[in-house]
Structures
1.
Amino acid sequence: HFVVQRDSGNVGIGTSSPSGGKLHVSGGDVKITDTFPALILDGTTGGNEWAFLEVASGNLEIRVNDSQKVAIDSSGNVGIGTSSPSKKLHLSAADVSMYLDNTNANGQAWEFKSTNGASSSTGTLQLKDEDGHFWMAFNENAGSNFIQFLTNNAEAMRIDDGNVGIGVVPSAWN
């Protein structure tokens, strides 16, 4: 079915009664084929043009007013503020920050989990500078939980099972 309604100008594909918009597709997908296909939403009241497009790198990008905001690469990495995401979530800006807002009064504020494909969790949350120097690391490895504070990638302090060590080898703790 392909219908153009004379009174509204609505176009229907797969339906004889197009409704809800100028183009109504029913019973199938919409495929756009081009060198760099794009879906552009240009609102007349909001003043912004939103574009979902494939770019030369093969990434899918979301742009606002022709400025790239989000990129998704072929491996599924998502970049916000970068067109070349190097991790599953890559944030990049002159003043980058993350805001996590848990509105459930009984919930956890943050939960980062790495299961390593096993039933016991293991992982590290690390804070580093741009040169890769550690500032702080929260480690969990098969029940051995500790917090490390580092300077120049060397451990300066560790909190482990209630013990605090400053400048001492953990095995020397009593």
2.
Amino acid sequence: TITASTNNSNAPKAIDDDAATRWDTNAPQQSGQWVIVDMQSAHKLNRIILDTSKSPGDGPAGCEVYLNTGIDGAWKRVASGKNAGAVQIISFPAEEASKFRIVQTGSKGNYWSIHELYAACVDDPSTGILPDASSSAAEMFYYNGQLSWSGLGNDMSTRIEIVDLSGRRLLLQD
């Protein structure tokens, strides 16, 4: 389940597997806005992915990610960052949690929107590229209906790879 500090009735649209729908704040971004996902049981996580590609400019101005490990109901901050574009990949050391919370830490005139929110434990791929959307040589996009990334190899060769979020290679072109 998902809940939000604002526009809570639309919160389920952030996890409905439909990138055409979205949750948004229905107001300009302000520090302190949040969404909480309750996964009902503990899962190992090391990535949170916020897809706002259908609403350019609506990524969080800044955010912090907290995990609830179930121990005394305490929240542990595991990551923080600033707006990284249409798809924000938030990476942190793997940890088991039953809930996670994303808190807006910045402000800007746009709504904060989430078209799709993904949480996973992803092994870093051995493909030579990493899922870093802020790199000028990397790009996030949909490929055969899956959110994917592509980029040049770490050695800046002409090899191009397309990899899904699990790290599975979908295409290799030398």
3.
Amino acid sequence: RTLESSCGLSVKPGKPFLKTDGVGFEADLSGVLGITSDGFTGLLAICFPEAVFLRLMEGMLGEPVKQITPDVEDGAAEILNMVTGVAIKVMKDQGRTLQRAIPSIIKGRNHQIWQLCKSPTLVIPFTTEVGRFYMQITIQPAEATATDETTTQAAAPKASADQAARVLVVDRSE
């Protein structure tokens, strides 16, 4: 609903599934942000093919967008902020907290995002009239972050959202 109201584009969520080894989703622009709470740390990534992202930005800005420029790519960070804003409100209503880092933008034809921890990644596909995009959510329980050496806060009992996760970006461009 957040994207539909902000971008004026019908967005339908698909059936969530767990990401498996060797199966990535190629994107041209991704927004990535670390999240943390008392009970977990994690990563939220939203991955767009260029055509879908440009159409979302046209709806958001109310004007034609023909290419991804530095100003336009900030729209991926804004979308992440909108999505996490809703999650923060839901958690606050439940008496819990959620902190988020400043989103990072990854741009490059056909790249893939891989989480560098042992926790499973939930993938939610979204379909629009222009194509699909994907949201990836990886949550690691707080007790696992203190012992898992693949995270940036290994051996730290509590991490900030900026330290919540490391990712590997695979460049598939030719």
